[in-house]
Fold these 3 entries.
Entry 1:
Amino acid sequence: MISVDEAREKIFQDLIPVGTEVVPINAALGRVIVEDIHPRRTQPPTDMSAMDGFAVRAVDVKTVPVTLKIVGEVAAGGCFTGVIKTGEAVRIFTGAPLPAGADTIIIQEDTEFDAGQVTVKEEAAKGTYVRPAGLDFKEGQIGLVAPRRLTARDIGLLAAMNIPWVTVRRKPVIALLSTGDELVRPGEPVGESQIISSNSLLIGAMIEAAGATALDLGIARDTEADIREKARSARSADMLVTLGGASVGDHDLIQPALASDGLNVDFWRIAMRPGKPLMFGQLKGQPLLGLPGNPVSGMVCSLLFLLPALNALVGLPPQRPPQLPARLAHDLKANDQREGYMRAEIIGVENGTPVVRLFDRQDSSMLSVLAAADCLVMRKPLASALPKGAEIMIIPLRDTYQTL
Ligand code: AMP
Ligand code: MG
């Protein structure tokens, strides 16, 4: 058995980024840019007002109150063609270009005015409420550095930079093959001792949420021939993920079935709980990740290995899942030699640190507990027992704002 970290290293070594495509920015959320992006425009293009008020010369408002003559008006999208001279002001609105000669904005609230003149009641330093040209970004500078997964904020920035299209990695296609004589699809006729296949739906949803495409190959019966045939239908996928059949039972047939098709096993079995029977290898150059059949094990292994692998496939550094410190709401017994990822709920926050309670039931088949969990509590191999209140590390599961 190898460690979680060793397994992750081995997976990343073997993954090559997929090719690229050009997409409009309104379809680019979560996609990964492959080249640095340079603004095609300076923003703001010229000095602009940040407020509704009056454009003045700072020297004219050194002593207040002072009354100035209103010589014009300019709103966003407009233009004042003249030049402001000593003793003059121009009525101005947010986003309007600063008239020539003016260098300062007096906000409306600091004035009294009628049609012809304005009395400035508060002084203002030169440049107050003026957004100088290029404040946000300048044409030709670097706007976004590749590789980068685009967030909603990035999409806004790209639009402002006048970039309507971007070159991104295409979405990796991940083929999912479930295995097991006991499995039927949701909604199909189901026998007394059968179970509904949930694993491929769960992991397919994780893949889609991570910005890749899940290709469901269906359920292979527990025969070498069926596994081989269905796996062959995934040749064009960027990675094949098998679910179940990777353990040591008589019905665990992934390895024997694919051996004759050239499967090269890199490693098999990791010192972790849940998820021991994880396998990684190459099937004639196609990366193959063999996940355990139990849904909780499959999900945890996907979080630790598959999602980072998806990052590697789009040319991003393969990150580990984010971890946070938390405190235990109860005593915790010592761990054995397998790294642990236990389902837990966050029951409160003390001094800014989440307080977590492990679910009593940690069976790796239990989807109800997995769905209820707020986080996974991590345990190092052979970690000693911990008292209530001790600090432990968690992987939060409710981080829904990754692409914000
Ligand atoms: P296996 O690795 O094939 O021995 O599967 C381990 C356990 O996970 C067994 O109890 C299977 O019934 C269950 N299992 C395997 N595949 C799935 C699946 N796609 N959905 C739900 N449970 C599964
Ligand atoms: Mg099975």
Note: The CA atoms of residues 168 and 196 lie 37 Å apart.
Entry 2:
Amino acid sequence: MTEREGTTTRTVHAGGHRLRALTGDRPTGPLHLGHLVGTLQNRVALQETHRTFILVADLHMLTTRLDHLDELEMNIREDVLGNLAVGIDPDKATIYLQSQVPETAELFLYFGMLVSVSRAQRIPTLKDKVRELRIARPSYGLLGYPVLQAADILLMRADAVPVGPDQSSHVELAREIARTFNGRFAPVFPVPTALAPLGGTLPGTDGSPKMSRSLRNTIDLFDDEAAVREKVMAMYTDPTRLRATDPGHVQGNPVFAFHDAFNPDPDEVADLKARYVSGRVGDVEVKGRLVDVLNSILSPIQQRRRDLLADNPLIVEDVLRSGAKQAQMEAADTIRQVRAAMQIDSFD
Ligand code: TRP
């Protein structure tokens, strides 16, 4: 048994096998500190207790990035290396590429019959995406985005889905689909639950509530020391404070949110906050300490990436090959049950 977020989460099924966790990233670009706090640390812990699947959602990229497909290979590579560098162990967790498990598309098609158009249109992230990415004519495929995600989750028969709050409406849809399928055909799927991130949501360097690539307010896991320094020194702080002797605001100040998230010395953070509020420390000192803290967190991650690649330059290929094999086995098993339940296996 483990305790998470105040609720008890079992780690074994009634039937005795380990519970399954599944999560994934869209390969949009390098992983950043927001990913570390929001999901990567969670995954590293989960791989010890759960049968863990991490998928690289390249098919999901087709819903919004058809004109950026040339970046896909590099972004997939970065995503896999990022996961490995923060401590995902491919002997414990299965990392796989969504497009290498074609049963995903088959299950997506079946699930498409179980979701009404109006239900899919009500998913809040659809409107957000259309607005943020200024999509003039949303595709049929984009409407299916959360249905495809449900196919990811249920194809591996996952019980737990560690994702940020922005994804909870998608997990909710996966739960509905699992219940509908199980009730109408046969009990093939566990009803998955979302697991909230352990570390909360990290703000962006510009002070917006969320660190995000599209807002260009990230500090990336593989930014070198100079880049980290430059980004931290340019970080948004307290706009009302003109001199180090002015009393400053800690609340809503991302520099302190970062100290809270990453500084291992709570006494130092408390001291910096007290001096900031009473006008006895300058932004340069507070930021300088943050640069040191971040570099001490990032440098072992970056070292691990170098070691992994030095040890095996084809590590990404190897991890994805063995991940695909494992995921394909699970997928074949699920699809066989699904086709039998739906009686579309008569001539198999
Ligand atoms: N939609 C998720 C995101 O944007 C990525 C994703 C795809 C995912 N399939 C998934 C997450 C399955 C969890 C489970 O971050």
Note: Strands lie at 2-4, 7-9, 20-25, 51-56, 93-97, 160-162, 193-195.
Entry 3:
Amino acid sequence: VAFSTETVYGLGANALDEQAVLSIYEVKGRPGDNPLIVHLAHTGLIPTVVADIPPMAVPLIERFMPGPLTLVMRRAPSIASAVSAGLDTVAVRCPSHPVAQAFLSMAGVPVAAPSANLSGRPSPTQVRHVLEDMEGKIPFVIDGGACEVGLESTVLDVTGDVPVLLRPGAVTADQIREACGLIPRVAKGTGQGPVRSPGMKYRHYAPRATVLVGIGRSLAARARHTAELVQEEVAAGRSVGVFASSKAILLIKEMQKAAPNENWPVRLVSYGELDDSVQASARLFDAFRTLDASGVDRIVVQSLPEKGMGAAYMNRVRKASAQKTGE
Ligand code: TXA
Ligand code: MG
């Protein structure tokens, strides 16, 4: 069953049933060594799926759960081993979305759920995205509307001496530090050594089109560079999809007016105000899907400062833009 959460849509199955969990991997085309998150109706159930709750996790649970935070802890034996892909830990999350909470309470079991996209596609943030990837493959989707956050939860490993940030999300590193008094270590993406979060070694959020990023020091410079990239690509004879601030979109429209006789194969999607990383995050995956489906050669995305939600936004933008060069 696919269901809406405040972050992205999940594809859920009974986490106590090995066969049900294996069917998730099959439907998604997900590698068997990339573990799933266990979703619970409320935080009171956490002790039923983990071996112990480390002290540093207590203030984090109190402050950010339910919500867009996933904690990696030692797993309890009741959880199907396929959920954890052979690791001795389990990732646990309590969504705040009322539809997710209703679904999880009715299910009456912990629900293992990755994002409800096909492996390698952007996570679904609307029911339409789930249908694009899953229609005919799964029996049900619970429509809870568009996801408010739009990026996947923050994943934090709390099994060691300090918390380790495995995936940035709406709960930021600063907020984690404030809540538990420890500075989270940021896990390296796909470096050497043992893989802490198996998901990090896979290419995610990968549109078919090559993704270029408009960068700069100031917000205005980022908008300008975004427009310049569009102009260069058009001049090179390529079609371009754009995801940028309304300011950058305005600059691009002015360029088009200045060259009225030229072919201008550009599709524009605005995220709103220059500095609005919350809206930009909420709309990013839909923009990737929409622009990619339109068949453009390039997608040009405006960068944002890596503060607050901007850190999670830039993490996803970087992954999408790295895919073609294999970075
Ligand atoms: O917002 C979200 O977290 C969404 C919604 C549906 O809850 N779920 C989601 O699941 O994004 P998924 O499977 O797409 O991403 C889960 C991430 C993967 O990078 C995976 O490797 C990591 O969490 N993960 C899961 N279990 C882990 C574990 N035991 N240790 C380390 N990383 C783990
Ligand atoms: Mg996913």
Note: The pocket of threonylcarbamoyladenylate (ligand 1) is lined by residues 5, 7-8, 10, 34-37, 70, 72, 84, 87, 89-91, 93, 113-115, 152-153, 155, 166-167, 197-199 (CB under 6 Å).
